[in-house]
Specification:
heterodimer; A: 408 residues; mainly alpha; 15 helices; 68% helix; globular; B: 165 residues; 0% strand
Chain lengths: 408, 165
């Protein structure tokens, strides 16, 4: 058995990583819905989910069970094959794109069967292009769902979404060309490495400063590609009932839902990697600032203690058991990081990456709680008349400046 | 090499089946979907030959942008199931011989080129850098002229679309 494991180490490790990442992404998706409902609720002076479990923490599980157990009717007159294919395509493509994201700079501190294990499933040389290829195909999930339902509102939603995605994909692609020119590579790891030449500058060494135009174009176009507020015209509930997924129920609806949240995560990862230095710390890498490496512990320990304190006083007995347990685990992780410097150094990269991804996810939710929806003509003129010209100008300016500076 | 060959045949079979389904499907959307399958299978073949960039562009441009337009138009016109018409006489008589002749020519060309490729040994790798060097150094005038032609076509389409106003 051992010889077999050594011979096929790469294959087995990759399969384990795929399963693990799938589990993590789906869990994060579930709790992202909880996070979104909580944050939007507090923005609107409500409590949000708080009945199922302490602080509503079991709400995602209840929702999942509901999706699985509800009746799943197939409307009469749908195009069966396409009707079933559409949610599958949407979910499969959204999940595939996560495979290209690297989650940390270094391999695990120990080798498994003689192999370095990196965080992240693949390291493609055409990384960003592969991501765009997957994005390009993910239009079909929405468009086909709209068409195959054989119903007015879904068709309108599907039409809107394909028009919107075609319009914003151009700006999306053009806006990253500046970053690619600066990095000289399509590889996501290389793009982060290219931002690490001035570690002593910390936050000011990142791509977002020279590429501020590119970042705005990219983020707006990416929000439009993921069909999120303020670009959620394909599922505008006040005009189109629920848009393209009106005729979907039960788990097929959940698949669209998971796909949408997964692409939110992908976009947050991409923004972080291409413009915000990926796993690089925002704090300048200077000797007297080295104590900031204990920031993960400094955040985790107080937070864990707060969860324990909050849990002891919680009104239900279940909460009085579960919350202190969670708090203890969080505190323990913080203590482990503080005690073992090797583990702490390894965690630095993933910590900053996840912190930045979390910030972008919060911005997504913040926008949903704040911004009204675009009108259709505004959407089109914004994409074609503002985003596209600005992103092309950004490419020209970046190329010009790089040419003037000469090879480095 | 055997694994590569196996993947090649799987992708090739998918591409051919997709192309057949493209012709035999009765509904335009199903035909368009079959065409997407063909495009993606071709991209897989390019990937197998080490042409990462071409594979990605194949999916982005053909699988993504162009086919989305096809599907958009089909959805917008709400095209129904096609009616089968009688085969035209010319196609009925000359079609099969011509198809066989074309297949023969292609097979002969492929057979000859594979001999020379085996002679030269290495398969050419089409990396991003090499493609851009070729496009922007050696073939820069044909490339720019083609771009110009496409621009003219776009302007022509705009003029035609706005003629009523």
């Amino acid at each position: 058995v051992n010889a077999f494991l050594f011979a096929n180490a790469t294959l087995i490790i990759t399969l384990v990583k795929v399963a693990l990442l799938l589990f993590i992404v789906l869990t994060v998706n579930a709790y992202l819905t909880w996070f979104e409902r909580k944050v939007v609720a507090h923005m609107q002076s409500r409590w949000g989910p708080h009945r199922v479990g302490p602080h509503g923490l079991l709400q995602p599980l209840a929702d999942g069970a509901k999706f699985l157990l509800k009746e799943d009717p197939t409307p009469a007159g749908v195009d069966k094959f396409t009707y079933f294919l559409a949610p599958l395509m949407a979910l499969a493509l959204a999940l595939t794109s996560i495979a290209i994201i690297p989650f940390g700079p270094n391999p695990l501190p120990w080798k498994i069967w003689g192999q370095d294990v990196y965080l992240g499933i693949t390291n493609l040389n055409i990384g960003i292009l592969a991501l765009f290829a997957i994005t390009a195909l993910s239009v079909y999930g929405v468009a086909l769902a709209g068409w195959s339902s054989n119903s007015k509102y879904p068709l309108l939603g599907g039409l809107r979404s394909s028009a919107q995605m075609v319009s914003y994909e151009l700006a999306l692609t053009m806006s990253v060309v500046g970053v690619l020119l600066m990095a000289g590579s399509f590889n996501l790891r290389d793009i982060i490495t290219a931002q690490s030449h001035h570690l002593e500058r910390g936050i000011f060494g990142w791509n977002v400063w020279p590429q501020i135009l590119g970042f705005f174009c990219f983020f707006i176009a990416a929000v439009a590609e993921t069909n999120r507020v303020p670009f959620d015209l394909p599922e505008a509930e006040s005009e189109l009932v629920a848009g393209f997924h009106t005729e979907y129920a039960s788990f097929k609806f959940a698949m669209f839902f998971i796909a949408e949240y997964t692409s939110m995560i992908t976009v947050s990862c991409l923004c972080t990697i291409m413009f915000f230095g990926g796993w690089l710390s925002p704090i300048p890498e200077l000797p007297w600032l080295h104590f900031t490496h204990y920031l993960p512990s400094a955040i985790l320990i107080p937070f864990g203690l707060w969860v324990i304190w909050d849990g002891i006083r919680y009104e239900t007995i279940f909460g009085r058991v579960v919350l202190p347990a969670i708090g203890t685990v969080i505190t323990a992780i913080g203590v482990v990081l503080a005690v073992f410097p090797a583990v702490n150094e390894f965690v630095q990269g993933p910590f900053w990456l996840l912190a930045k991804i979390g910030t972008f996810l919060f911005i997504y939710v913040w926008m949903r709680g704040t911004l009204p929806r675009f009108r259709y003509d505004q959407l089109m003129s914004f994409g074609w008349k503002l985003l596209l010209p600005v992103s092309i100008a950004n490419v020209v300016i970046t190329a010009f400046v790089l040419l003037m500076r000469g090879p480095q | 090499v055997t694994a590569q060959l196996a993947i090649f045949f799987i992708l090739a079979v998918i591409a051919v089946l997709g192309a057949l389904s493209l012709i035999f499907q009765r509904h335009p959307i199903h035909s368009a979907l079959s065409l997407i399958v063909v495009m993606v299978a071709l991209a897989g073949l390019y990937l197998l030959m080490g042409a990462d960039f071409v594979a990605a562009v194949q999916i982005i441009v053909y699988g993504g942008a162009i086919m989305v337009l096809f599907i958009f138009v089909i959805m917008l016109l709400n095209a129904g199931i096609e009616e089968r018409t009688d085969v035209s006489k010319l196609a009925g008589i000359a079609g099969i011989p011509l198809a066989v002749a074309l297949l023969g020519f292609l097979a002969a060309a492929v057979a000859r080129s594979s001999e020379s490729a085996q002679g030269s040994g290495q398969m050419a790798l089409a990396s991003t850098k090499e493609i851009s060097t070729m496009l922007f150094r050696e073939f820069v005038y044909p490339f720019e002229l083609t771009s110009f032609l496409i621009l003219v076509a776009i302007l022509g389409a705009l003029v035609l679309a706005q003629r009523d106003n």
